[in-house]
Design brief:
The chain is an alpha+beta fold. The protein has 2 domains: 2-109, no CATH class; 113-141, no CATH class. Helices cover 29% and strands 14% of the residues. The chain contains 4 helices and 6 strands, in the order ααββββααββ. It has helices at 2-6, 10-21, 52-56, 91-109; strands at residues 27-30, 35-37, 40-42, 47-50, 112-114, 120-122. The strands form 3 sheets. A two-stranded antiparallel sheet has the order 1-4. Strands 2-3 form a two-stranded antiparallel sheet. It is elongated, with a radius of gyration of 19 Å. The two termini are 19 Å apart.
Length: 141
């Protein structure tokens, strides 16, 4: 994220990667007609849940999807704001706010540091790292 603060063109990629890596969208739909999928019949009117988290980490759609990396462009279509007629009307505002927040946080926190425990901690400028026992492990390890 510090790279995004130092390299403004990474800002949009950082926003997309945050939305891809940690989506908040819960997408529910109802089948409009009977649907056969891999030998399973899903009758018309059945509620269906789409897991954006799983979709954004599908190796066919996003190789190395479990790795958070703002420097690599992702061709994956994001589901964080829904799609089609149900696309979030506030998506542009949310992206702008997230870009500003990420840039401000990255410039204030400085680079992350690794502690002997393998945990990652962000420190403010001129501050010593926090007690490693108080830092939560990263979600991927």
């Amino acid at each position: 994220m510090v790279a995004a603060a130092r390299t403004p063109e990474l800002g949009e990629q950082a926003v997309n990667e945050v939305l891809r890596y940690s989506p908040t969208a819960t997408i529910w739909r109802h089948t409009a007609a009977d649907l056969h999928h891999k030998g399973l019949l899903i009758p018309a009117g059945t509620p269906v849940h789409l897991s954006a988290h799983a979709a954004h980490r599908d190796p066919q759609a996003c190789p190395d999807g479990d790795i958070f990396d703002i420097t690599r462009g992702r061709p994956t279509t994001l589901l964080a704001f829904g799609g089609g007629a149900h696309y979030c009307p506030g998506a542009a505002l949310a992206r702008t706010e997230l870009a500003e927040a990420l840039t401000a946080l990255a410039s204030r926190l400085g680079p992350p540091t690794h502690h002997r425990t393998g945990h990652l901690a962000a420190t403010g400028r001129g501050q010593r790292p926090r007690d490693p026992s108080a830092v939560l492990p990263p979600p991927w390890g």
